[in-house]
Automatic annotation (TrEMBL):
This protein's name: HicB-like antitoxin of toxin-antitoxin system domain-containing protein
Species whose genome carries this gene: Serratia quinivorans
Residues in HicB-like antitoxin of toxin-antitoxin system domain copies: 3-61
InterPro entries found in the cross-reference section: HicB-like, TTHA1013/TTHA0281-like
The organism's place on the tree of life at top rank: Bacteria
Amino acid sequence: MFYPAYVHSEHDGSASGFFPDVPGCYFAGDTLDRAFEDAKSALDAHFELLSEDNQSIPTPTGRFLPSGAGEQHAEWRTVAAGRHQYG
């Protein structure tokens, strides 16, 4: 399954983001590429914790939220997650 991820790049090249379909799941990195590498790890770790707590794994909506005006250093991507292994 693919989850939409929103990421914002800073002027120093670092980046951070979140998954709108997965409340509380955030990621970051020293570069945009590292942030998206961390996104996959963050999503898997978040799903593992939800599973351990017998909570349901969110289903991705596939919808992207509109970016705010002036968000020149922001973008959307999708991140694959093995949701089936947790729920």
